[in-house]
Amino acid sequence: MAKKNLNIGVVGYGFMGRTHANAYHNAANFFDLPLKPVLKAACGRDEAKLKAYADNWGFESTETDWKKLIARKDIDAIDICTPNNSHAEIAMAAARAGKMVLCEKPLSLDGPEGEEMVKVIEAAKVPNTVWYNYRRVPAVTLAKQIIDSGKLGKIFHYRANFLQDWTISADLPQGGAGLWRLDAKAAGSGVTGDLLAHCIDTAIWLNGPLTDVTAMTETFIKERKHTLSGKVEKVKIDDACTFMGHFANGSLALFESTRYARGHKALYTLEINGENASIRWDLHDLHRLQYFDYSDEGIVRGWRSIHVTDGDQPYMKNWWVPGLQIGYAESFTHQVADFIRAVGAGKPCSPTFREALETQYVCDAVLASAKSGKWVKCKHSTKAKAGKK
Questions:
Q1: Alpha helices by DSSP H, the chain
Q2: Helices 87-96 and 111-124 sit at what angle, rounded to 10 degrees?
Q3: Between the CA atoms of 336, 342, 348 and 353, what dihedral angle is there, to the nearest 10 degrees?
Q4: End-to-end CA distance of the chain
Q5: What is the mean pLDDT of the chain?
Q6: CA–CA distance, 103 with 131 (Å, rounded to integer)
Q7: ω before 106 within 30° of 0 (cis)?
Q8: Burial class for 170, CB neighbours closer than 10 Å (0-12, 13-18, 19+)
Q9: Are strands 267-274 and 155-163 parallel, antiparallel or unpaired?
Q10: Are residues 44 and 148 both part of a single domain?
Q11: What is the pLDDT averaged over residues 50-63?
Q12: Do 13 and 115 lie in a common domain?
């Protein structure tokens, strides 16, 4: 029996547009889903680039105006893969039109804008999610299962970093289609909203909410030529950020992110130290989870490397035989599968807009602390309970 289609309209055709299109293609092939995702329409401003993207990924049609895309009756869900400063307008318009909404991270430019988005999305009662894909890496999902089982005992430390090196050159301009992440008007912030947001979302999911933070940021190159104006302008995003904090469960937080770590293209690592055991994960070896259990016999006690490929481990029964690993792209496929399953069951798909707002509040607190030089308390979503994982 043919399954009902879930018609997707994707706004944006860049890096994230490609990862999402690939995920929609693969989800129904590897997962038994209640609805079949269909790439109904792609939307973007540059007609030539849009056509190339749509043709390559097999979209049925194109639109150059996202408002027209939202108005189409044959579109069920709007997937937002645009710069951060356009998330709110597109997401709220889509929700008011009764469309499901999938939004790239971070949710918004700041907490107040995110609050408005949550208010609209919840009033519309449409399915929604934010693309914090690292939750769906099988090894990270396995870490969640181990933590929730209580094997680590009381948590003492959570540390994470996300290191890159692609903005070191002073000749690199800010703004424009390719470099909007260096323009505060488009991005909202630098590494805090781009890279640390991933680390923060994963941390909240694994270890519960952060209560307060103290931070420092640095902009190493103070001025850059702006692509759009052609003028040299002040750089207002953070090139690097380090912060410490407290979790509601009493554990300590230590986070670092930079685009000035020469030799690192995308090094995301996290480590959690508990009373009885510890967990460590590295994006460069993403199919493995490092695990230390103090209850092991002393003569063989040490870090063990868990190869997350077996069918009883998260998501892996849908892929290959044990021992054959998957990668970065599949984390997006997992999110598509989880979203469609949730839609079919009438349940929310985490992280929802409200859950993603928690991460936005932490980012706001980090930037406020860096500016003031003081400890700042983290605001929480009104429906979130501090201390609850």
A1: 15-30, 47-57, 66-71, 87-96, 111-124, 138-149, 184-187, 191, 197-207, 328-345, 353-372
A2: 10
A3: 10
A4: 40
A5: 96
A6: 6
A7: yes
A8: exposed
A9: antiparallel
A10: no
A11: 98
A12: yes
Total domains present in the chain: 2
**Residue pair 272/152 in contact by the 8 Å Cβ criterion:** yes
CATH no. for residue 149? Answer: 3.30.360.10
**What are 144's two structure tokens?**
């969640």
d(CA 98, CA 124) in angstroms, rounded, equals 7
Place of tokens 């460069």: 284
* Assigned token pair, 40: 């109904």
Q: Give 73-98 pLDDT, tens digit per residue.
A: 999 999 999 999 999 999 999 999 99
- Judge whether 341 lies within some domain: no
Q: Which two tokens stand for residue 155?
A: 């948590």
Is-contact 213 378, C-beta < 8 A? yes
Task: State residue 63's pLDDT score.
Answer: 98
Within this chain, do residues 249 and 289 fall inside the same structural domain, yes or no?
A: yes
Count how many Cα atoms sit within 13 Å of the Cα of residue 36 in the half-sphere of its side chain. Answer: 8
Domain identity same for 129 and 223:
no
